[in-house]
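# step 3/5: fold
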Amino acid sequence: MSTKTNEPGRGAIDINDMGVVFNARGTMVEAVSSVDLKVRPGEFVSLIGPSGCGKSTLLNIVAGFVEPTSGSVLVDGKTIRGPSSDRGVVFQQYSLFPWLSVRKNVEFGLKMKGVAASQRETQARTLLGLAGLLAFENHYPDQLSGGMKQRVGIVRALATSPQVLLMDEPFGALDAQTRTVMQEILTNMWQQFRISVLFVTHDIEESIFLSDRIYVMTARPGRIKAEITVPLPRPRTPEMTYTPEFIALVQQLKGLIREESLAAMGSELKEGGLSGFGVEVGPKGVGEMV
């Protein structure tokens, strides 16, 4: 089976003036407000922002798990009406079926679509080969490392040939070294498939390394604070992270995120309070303060 790339002109995400309000135990909470966001076909776009700003909520709306309260959310010009195989999803948790082998996990979506067993096996083995996992096709999830499990999750999401891949902090649970390697694997696989990707992360360096564009969200209710174009050439290599262009983007994004993180934490963490909250701790420690 040859590697299937995204169809020309397919995989466009178009979010217009979208808002989300949740009912939390009788209290109406505005999670996201007036969001405008676009992902062009074959583009890699990241969402970053402080905790609780609505990044995952926005991703879940595109996935079809949550309905927006207002505005419109379209994929290829069509309003989203629930989950669909044209949108693959990869979560931070290793959402693999523990009773299925690696290959059977990858085949699962194809089986649900009615693909013949021989074709399922061929497609799954090809994708596992691209991810460097073919030797583990008959292993079970509990026999794999965290990075390997997440590679299986990505391959499984790609197996049904979606037009859009939605990724919610997929490397958040991995150690730093494994995370760096996974970023390289993902960008290499993306180069082959050229699928549209919407990627949620807290990691500024990760967002720059992977993305064509980055949307920065405000503290809740989440709005789009800034849209940053990443001017680095493709393919991306680890050496790029040491360039002046990369470092400048890191500093720019850190400044934007810091403003919103302080806003999210509230007035008790205003600028003057970060040096120690204006309280001196004596030789007896915190105990003498209470």
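# step 4/5: annotate
The CA atoms of residues 98 and 167 lie 21 Å apart.
# step 5/5: archive (pending)
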